[in-house]
Amino acid sequence: MHHARTVGLQEQIGKFLDGHQDELCRRLKEIDGKGRFFEDLWKHVEQGGGRTRVLERGALFEKAGVNTSSVKGVLPAALASKLGTEAQRFSASGISLILHPDSPMVPAVHMNLRYIELGDGDAWFGGGADLTPFYPYREDVEHFHTVLKEACDRHDPSYYPRFKRWCDEYFYLPHRNEARGVGGIFFDELRGDMLKSWAFVQDFGRSFLDAYLPIVGHRRDEAWGDREKEFQLIRRGRYAEFNLVYDRGTLFGLETNGRAESILISLPPLVKWKYDYNPAPGSRESELQEYLKPRDWIQRTQ
Amino acid sequence: MHHARTVGLQEQIGKFLDGHQDELCRRLKEIDGKGRFFEDLWKHVEQGGGRTRVLERGALFEKAGVNTSSVKGVLPAALASKLGTEAQRFSASGISLILHPDSPMVPAVHMNLRYIELGDGDAWFGGGADLTPFYPYREDVEHFHTVLKEACDRHDPSYYPRFKRWCDEYFYLPHRNEARGVGGIFFDELRGDMLKSWAFVQDFGRSFLDAYLPIVGHRRDEAWGDREKEFQLIRRGRYAEFNLVYDRGTLFGLETNGRAESILISLPPLVKWKYDYNPAPGSRESELQEYLKPRDWIQRTQ
Questions:
Q1: Is A78 exposed, middle or buried (0-12, 13-18, 19+ CB in 10 A)?
Q2: Which of A237, B12, B29, B111 has minimal CB crowding within 10 Å?
């Protein structure tokens, strides 16, 4: 049993998450230029609640969701057993962001941060960010990974290699034999020196837009038409498959009577399933497949 | 341990399934009037294979899938334990049908039949059919259930009440607190007198189009526009949620290295997820909700 709880930390985290949500929404609204965030305040069936913010049919974002939640309850037996502990009270605070741009030339992206505290005193952080392009550019992928690596390296040189690999393993669709996108970082059960972890988590959270927005800047004015949109809608099908079949956060939320609309905000706004679609060999669409094989994007031997 | 295997049954079943697929496709193509079935013959990674037939962008059906498969392999440990048996060889033969009409006025529908045989001699049938309307009519629901009930009653008066309730329990989305549609029948591990079960399974399979096609006839010429299509796309999101989060057949197929494109043929061709969509009170769309509460459609006390 761990006793990692740090006095006052939960309150600090709650404040950070709320402020971070404000900052993310402010900057996303600004860069969208047209859409506005609609806000829903909700209560969990047991205890706690959340603040769901969603922007739909913007100029840049077809759907942007930025949620915070802070929930208390009793750990479900299945999760308790997986964590090697007994049924006990828990609290979970987190923020999650999902951006589905209208333009197929701009990658979709996801980010989340969470802090879990158990009744016995054990506590940890988790989170991550991953990029899902449709028409990928090598320099975009390198930029995204470089910014995340720098945020990691400022705290622990072991973080990026570990969290990058973890991301590749987590955001993977076995039935498609491909990654969800080009990865990023993923981490869970980050304990140890909690103040160190907390400093990293904040730094990572604040770095996220620096990893993503320059890519938006480079790609938002690229031309696209029906062909590119169709490809995006089909690729979004894979995104929906991942979130509904494999994503632990989604399934955990649904199993614990979470608020379905806030959990499923991650689903793309419009999705197409076309039987046995395969891009023509040599086409621009066929290039994506090479990017969906996990690899080291920035740690090349030179 | 059961020893229910009936000599020659598996071969008979294979022949029936292939012939039934031909008959279903012939009649569906005829009623569509424009689309054609594309056929894929495939091999399973272990042993066996299947015949996938799909019609896309027809006059009536936006997507129609009719698959047969016959697969042999070793029962996965998790499934073996659920069935209360040990790891052993198994064979599974089946047919599955899914129809996603273009018109929101015509209900989507699903049907499947399967026969499983284990190495130790145990064997059983499973299957079902359920209707998913968007703009429901009471008489359509009654017709669908009446035809299925008659097929059941010809073999065992206990079938329909049991299988109807089983369907209501199975095709249910707990996170939405609603049924997938208006139900039908669902059965699994049907053993006992195997020749009796087999007679029922064939009768049910042959009755299916009688349950569905008259509804198509009544609804296909009803007018609809963007509003009705949008509602259909949003409701199809629930269908995708069910199939990817809960459907045992889908998850079993994905977990056992099944052919992803044949399994996921059940997903709707185009789907919309709109944050916290709720039909306006009193609108035609709001009427659906009442139909998604399981109830006895034809066994009313009169």
A1: exposed
A2: B12
